[in-house]
Design goal:
binds magnesium ion; Rossmann fold; six-stranded parallel beta sheet; about 15% strand; alpha/beta; binds ligand TZD; binds adenosine-5'-diphosphate; 22 helices
């Protein structure tokens, strides 16, 4: 064999990634991918190594959301793959494009269940949770495998894709010329999808006849990066809008047309609602009573035709990509106008004023120990002149209060538990956002939420990422246990000092018990860009069970 003209699967994977502009990858090393990661780094690909695959894959998923390029995560076989799969499933659920690439053990042994090291039929395990799952068995197919994975991840409704690379395929040798020819550079993997003109007319007719129209912006709208068009649509029509949590900042939260502070009123009284990249799932009470009126009619802009009518009848579906669809609306609006009724705008304005005043009162209080409102106000003050900072947010009360108190002013800056209400995305999302953007990140974390990915503070310190973690420490899931009692199912060690954890890795730890110090310490952390963890002592009695979704929490009828 003339080795000068030969290459192997490892090199082909790297060439395929580079050819497709994948310059950053996330993962966790081990058999059979260690050499691949080493080679990738040597070939100029930025590799970020994690302490748990779930966080690595979460970082890849959020990278996909922020860049519209599929985030890439590499894991080892068996359990490493399974650890990453939760995040891949979460990416699919949230419509984030990412590719989980795992090395796998010997197929001949796996298929006969003969007990290989980290044996698992990974491709078939991935299938129910992935938008697509592929296995590459021969090195000459790596190029096709990656191309198919990219198309599947970003086309149409984005999602998580699984790509299985067998250990044998990685180590196989092939002719370098043939390998080069086998590579594919994908062209236009997320093509524009223009809505049909009739669908746009139908929707505009409905809007024009509406008295109380309302626009709801979801994270599909944020993902689409049609920020200018969406703003123009909202402003030229004068229709009030509600942002779903990750769509906050698509228009600045202090925009006069935001109806966020009058949410229930706006939803309950709207006669025509235009959903833009938002599903009528549990986060919108499935479009059903008591929040919604039965007579409300819907327009839905979505790229997925099968999303339409999933929860209630949609009078005017507009199937296409958001940018093209919104542009089609703008084009038509040149020659026709939409006018929400004056009573509607007045009604919303009144509720807003009332609710904003009530909220201001709650935020003005400065109790000792701090509660969620006062501590979040302190965080908000540190963020107030830094709209460029990414905000990651998870927890129950910490999430629900955080969403309401922390205003966002730029698109795609708020990253949170999303469609599943999942815990454990915190450090992965924070690292992904910091790596992709180079901007500071503030992660506002419930103490339980933080625990799911907390070990990644070592990763943050290792790469010196500008991440400040604010742990809302109320001693448990929803609240802490009373002093001197046995641990309950929701309680943790009281008065824990999470700040000491980060000091083990050379980061900065702070323990704070008052709002002034919290604002000051967080402001400094954002300014310095040093890895920082602020342990915020929150009243352990302050939270409510299940936060704002108590209605979803079944209770035993037999217990008092
Ligand atoms: P939220 O949680 O903010 O309400 P969802 O995740 O429920 O948002 O909804 C996002 C919707 O956006 C999904 O139905 C998805 O199909 C759609 N979507 C994602 N990307 C695009 C795009 N580029 N164009 C149109 N629709 C999109
Ligand atoms: N496991 C996973 C993966 N996701 C979940 N959502 C849960 C468990 C259940 N859960 C919630 O829905 S919120 C939450 C859990 C465990 C943590 C709430 O405690 P916290 O926040 O400390 O993070 P607060 O501020 O104390 O409410
Ligand atoms: Mg807590």
């Amino acid at each position: 064999m003339d080795s000068a003209n030969m290459t192997d699967g490892f090199h082909v994977v790297i060439d395929a990634l580079k050819l497709n502009g994948m310059d950053t990858i996330y993962g966790l090393a081990g058999i059979p991918i260690t050499d691949l990661l080493r080679l990738a780094a040597a070939e100029g690909i930025r590799y970020i190594g994690f302490r748990h695959e779930q966080s690595a894959a979460n970082a890849a998923a959020i990278a996909g959301y922020l860049t519209q390029k599929p985030g890439i995560c590499f894991t080892v076989s068996g359990p490493g793959f399974l650890n990453g799969m939760v995040a891949m499933a979460n990416a699919t659920t949230n419509c984030f494009p990412m590719i989980l690439i795992s090395g796998s053990s010997d197929r001949a042994i796996i298929d006969l269940e003969q007990g290989d090291y980290e044996e698992l039929d990974q491709m078939n395990a991935a299938k129910p949770y992935a938008k697509a799952a592929f296995r590459v068995n021969r090195p000459q197919d790596i190029g096709v495998g990656l191309a198919r994975a990219i198309h599947a991840a970003v086309s149409g409704r984005p999602g998580g894709v699984y790509l299985d690379l067998t250990a044998e395929c990685l180590a196989s040798v092939l002719d370098a010329g043939a390998a080069k020819k086998s590579l594919i550079k994908v062209v236009d993997p997320a093509p524009s999808q223009i809505p049909s003109p009739e669908s746009v007319h139908r929707a505009l007719d409905l809007l024009a006849a509406a008295h109380n129209p309302l626009i709801i912006l979801g994270k599909g709208a944020a993902y689409a990066q049609a920020d200018v068009q969406i703003r123009e649509l909202v402003e030229t029509t004068g229709i009030p809008y509600l942002p779903m949590s990750m769509a906050k900042g698509l228009l600045p939260d202090n925009h006069p047309q935001s109806a966020a502070a009058a949410r229930s009123y706006a939803i309950g009284q709207a006669d025509v609602v235009m959903l833009v990249g938002a599903r009528l799932n549990w986060l919108l009470s499935h479009g059903k009573a008591p929040l919604w009126s039965e007579t409300t009619q819907f327009i839905q802009l979505d790229i997925s035709p099968t999303e339409i009518d999933s929860n209630r009848s949609i009078a005017a579906p507009v199937v296409g990509d958001i940018r093209s669809s919104v542009q089609a609306f703008l084009d038509e609006l040149q020659s026709r106008s939409i006018t929400p009724s004056a009573e509607w705008l007045e009604g919303i304005a009144q509720r807003k004023d009332k609710n904003i005043a009530k909220m201001a009162e709650r935020l003005a209080a400065d109790p000792q120990p701090m509660n969620f409102s006062s501590a979040l106000r302190a965080v908000r003050d540190a963020l107030s002149d830094r709209p460029d900072v990414y905000v990651v947010n998870e927890g129950a009360n910490t999430l629900d209060f955080g969403r309401n108190v922390i205003d966002m002013y730029e698109p795609r800056k708020r990253l949170d538990s999303g469609t599943w209400g999942i815990m454990g995305i915190g450090m992965g999302y924070a690292i992904g956002a910091a790596v992709e953007s180079g901007k500071p990140v503030v992660a506002i974390e419930g103490d339980s939420a933080f625990g799911f990915s907390g070990m990644e503070i070592e990763t943050i310190c290792r790469y010196q990422l500008p991440v400040a973690i604010v742990v809302f420490n109320n001693g448990g899931i929803y609240r802490g246990d009373p002093a001197g009692t046995q641990p309950s199912p929701t309680g943790f060690v009281p008065n824990a000092r999470y700040d000491k954890l980060i000091e083990a890795f050379g980061g900065e730890g702070h323990h704070v018990e008052d709002t002034k110090t919290l604002t000051r310490v967080l402001t400094d952390a954002i300014e310095s860009g040093r890895p920082t963890l602020i342990n915020v002592a929150i009243d352990p009695t302050a939270g409510t069970e299940s936060g704002h979704i108590q209605n979803l929490n079944p209770k035993s009828a037999l217990q008092k």
